Amino acid sequence: MALIALLRRLYAYKIGKIYSYLALQPTTSKGVA
Which residues does 29 contact at the CB level (< 8 Å), separation at least 6? Predict the structure, then answer.
């Protein structure tokens, strides 16, 4: 169970990083959305 929690945290961290990166580029976020 600890491993799953760790993977979830890592996944959320990656998603947050990608989301913030796209948020800094309006044109890219528009193309993705």
Answer: 22, 23
**Position 12: which residue type?**
A
Q: Which tokens go with 27?
A: 């044109």
Q: pLDDT digits over 9-27, tens only? A: 999 999 999 888 877 776 6
Q: Positive or negative CA dihedral for 8, 10, 15, 19?
A: positive
8-state DSSP, 33? -
Cβ 23 vs Cβ 15: under 8 Å: no
Residue 24 DSSP code: T
